[in-house]
Amino acid sequence: MTKETITLNLGPQHPSTHGVLRVLLELDGEIIVDAKPDIGFLHRGLEKLAEYRTYQQILVLTDRLDYLAAMSNNFAYVLAVEKLLEIEVPKRAQYIRVALVELQRIASHLFWLGTHAHDLGAMTPLFYALCEREDIMDIFEAISGGRLTPSFMRFGGLAADADSTFVKNTKKFTDTFSSKVDVYENLLTENPMWLSRTRNVGMMSKEFCINTGISGPMARAAGIEWDLRKSNPYSSYEDFDFAIPTGLQGDVFDCYMMRIREMRESAKIVRQAVDGLPESDGSPIKAKVNKFPAGEIYHSIESPRGELGFYIVSDGGKSPARFRVRPPSFVNLQGVGELMKGRLLSDAVAIIGMIDIVLAEVDR
Amino acid sequence: MTIDTLTEKIGEYIKESDSFRDEVTVTIDRDAIIPVCCILKEDEDCSFDFLSDCCGLDRLPETPRFMVVYNLYSLKYKHRVRIKVPLEESDAEIESLTPLWNAANWLERECFDMFGIRFTGHPDLRRIITPPNMEGHPLKKDFPLEGSDTK
């Protein structure tokens, strides 16, 4: 027996890394001694590019940040600019936005659920989860014309008003969605193999999460009761009745449970939003904007991955002087090395999965 | 968080303060960054325990050219504050916040990568997003949007 360790590259081309993440693992046999994530393979200079584009054009760039939750990115960006402009958004538009963003949260969590389970060797959940995600994509396509990158939000509202088809389709979706989540849970929640791969793996304490800046479902899995939709409500979230699920020990299983429970809560919000959708008062659903005042603002929302913030510095011109994205995946990812230390190599895949990273957002 | 409360707590360090769209920004000297953040983090009434964001800002042609911008959040009171530290181009160096928050680690590395601002006391100040052999810092205003070697 020697004390020699070997270095192993996990990624950048490895299916479990969900894009192009490279993790440099130092292994002692099967045990991870050290793990160093290496990012930047998908860097497109998005923040730089935004300085050369008008505010209206930037909306399209935000879609490409976190492509699994494009609506959420649109939403966070328009909210930030609306804060700069001091625009009041019609109640009807606010409700439609909430419905769309919560549908997006479900779609994002479904994709995560399918791929995460697939990473850990369970093939079936992917096929089930993508069925319902497809329904959401169809709803998006019907209302916006786009599926993955809809670019549907506008300053002061939306590109178009929702019609009765949207309401009908959304109601149809929420009617059955809860029973679909039961099916996913049947496949995984009490499955002994799932439990052995996820229970007590990658445990996070509250202090670790706060210190590392971890937000979103991961932080809630560790027991931090913090959700920006509740703590700093925006876009009428205070009108809706929903719970903030929290976990106990912040392991991979808790992260899984958080997202499962969040999907159920999101479906409730969507239902409330379409049921209580205020009638249109005839006023336009978007605002005409030409002048952007000088100033700086930071606005963040609860995206499916955590605190997604936009910090915009305006000098009064057509383009921002500085466009900064506070990407939840980027900050959440930096704790990964710490969580992997001392674990088995197979746990590395589970730990990467629990973060729910989108590398396009990490690298920008 | 109001400017009055902040003045009471860290008034001696504040060079400038501003409230825009209900967001409070304070500008401080770079030597004050550690003491100010310690007070804001530990003080009962402030309790800014969460470092939301840290990023750079290039104000060319204004001087001092650079700014480091910190966005702090309090999980207890749900309020925010923004701290700005101006830095001269010739001496773009500031103390790292990694002893206070691990979250600063990658955020400061990104800031270094994009603007060339150095963080003293940072445990691992390397480029994070661009390749190690990259020349220049992409988010500087004088860095071209398109590459010069493209024909």
Protein model, in words:
The complex is a heterodimer of chains A (364) and B (151). Helices cover 49% and strands 13% of the residues of chain A. Chain A has 364 residues and is an alpha+beta fold. In chain A, helix 2 (55-63) runs antiparallel to helix 3 and helix 6 (164-188) packs antiparallel against helix 11. Chain B is α/β, with parallel strands linked by helices and 151 residues long. Chain B has a domain at 3-90: NADH:ubiquinone oxidoreductase Nqo5 subunit (Beta Polymerase, domain 2). Chain B contains three helices and seven strands. Chain B has helices at residues 3-10, 33-42, 104-115, and strands spanning 14-20, 23-28, 50-58, 66-73, 80-87, 93-95, 118-120. In chain B, the strands form two sheets. A five-stranded mixed beta sheet of chain B has the order 1-2-5-4-3. Chain B has a two-stranded parallel ribbon with strand order 6-7. In chain B, a hairpin with a 2-residue loop joins strand 1 and strand 2. The radius of gyration of chain B is 16 Å and the shape is globular. Chain B starts with a helix and ends in a 31-residue tail after the last strand. The relative contact order of chain B is 0.15.
